[in-house]
Design brief:
The complex is a heterodimer of chains A (about 110) and B (about 110).
Chain A (H helix, E strand, L loop, with lengths): L2 E4 L4 E4 L4 E8 L5 E7 L6 E7 L4 E4 L2 E6 L4 E6 L8 E8 L6 E3 L3 E6 L1
Parallel strand pairs in A: 2-11
Antiparallel strand pairs in A: 1-3, 3-8, 4-5, 4-9, 6-7, 7-8, 9-10, 9-11
Chain B lengths: L3 E3 L3 E4 L5 E7 L5 E8 L3 E8 L6 E2 L6 E7 L2 E6 L8 E8 L9 E2 L3 E5 L1
Parallel strand pairs in B: 2-11
Antiparallel strand pairs in B: 1-3, 3-8, 4-5, 4-9, 5-6, 7-8, 9-10, 9-11
Classes of the chains: A mainly beta (about 110), B mainly beta (about 110).
Chain lengths: ~110, ~110
């Protein structure tokens, strides 16, 4: 069955460092992959999308990579700030069907 | 900006009650979704709709039904609430024909069934 894995343990890093979150998947051939941010008690908010034929995508301090051979996406936040503390969800889409399958998310804590 | 609103942020109901969760979006999106989110299980799709009066089962439809009488409104119905339906319920919308399928979420309704 399709499976998306994100590290369930919280990631604690120091302010100014680069945070790297991982999303692995099995039994899935996604056309694209998305990353969302979710703050406590709120709905997820879209951050970035990367397609299967793209290796890397950047937006300000965010960078996403997508390796369809390894079946993995890495999400990087450079120069991290305490305001980046949140749970980050990856979601895979097959394209055309409008259905996304979400991972369980990884909680990031950026400490001063 | 897309705005998705949900009728309640917090709701407490008793076992056996009929529960209505309402979701409204203001961007004329065709697609609407209902998820529930539980610790360790992530977001799970309950039902979705591509158009008015159209609905499709998601991954966990049992115990739920939906209604989409108007394009902007998508309702989730718990016919007879049970304690295992205590959860955070999230509504989302998106718009084809883009293949991006980016979803815009509401703030969520935290439902407690006693």
């Amino acid at each position: 069955s399709q499976k998306i894995e994100q590290n369930s343990e919280a990631l604690n890093i120091q302010e100014g460092k680069t945070a790297t979150l991982t999303c692995n998947y099995t039994n899935y051939s996604p056309a694209y992959l998305q990353w969302y941010r979710q703050d406590p008690g709120r709905g997820p908010v879209f951050l970035l999308l990367i397609r299967e034929n793209e290796k890397e995508k950047r937006k300000e301090r965010l960078k996403v990579t997508f390796d369809t051979t390894l079946k993995q996406s890495l999400f990087h936040i450079t120069a991290s700030q305490p305001a980046d503390s949140a749970t980050y969800l990856c979601a895979l889409g097959a394209g055309g069907g409008n259905k996304l399958t979400f991972g369980t998310g990884t909680q990031l804590k950026v400490e001063l | 900006d897309v705005k998705v609103t949900q009728s309640s942020r917090y709701l407490v109901k008793r076992t056996g009650e009929k529960v209505f969760l309402e979701c409204v979006q203001d961007m004329d999106h065709e697609n609407m979704f209902w998820y529930r989110q539980d610790p360790g299980l992530g977001l799970r799709l309950i039902y979705f709709s591509y158009d008015v009066k159209m609905k499709e089962k998601g991954d966990i439809p049992e115990g739920y039904s939906v209604s989409r009488e108007k394009k902007e409104r998508f309702s989730l119905i718990l016919e007879s609430a049970s304690t295992n339906q205590t959860s955070m319920y999230l509504c989302a919308s998106s718009s084809p024909p883009k293949l991006t399928d980016t979803q815009y979420f509401g703030p969520g309704t935290r439902l407690t069934v006693l």
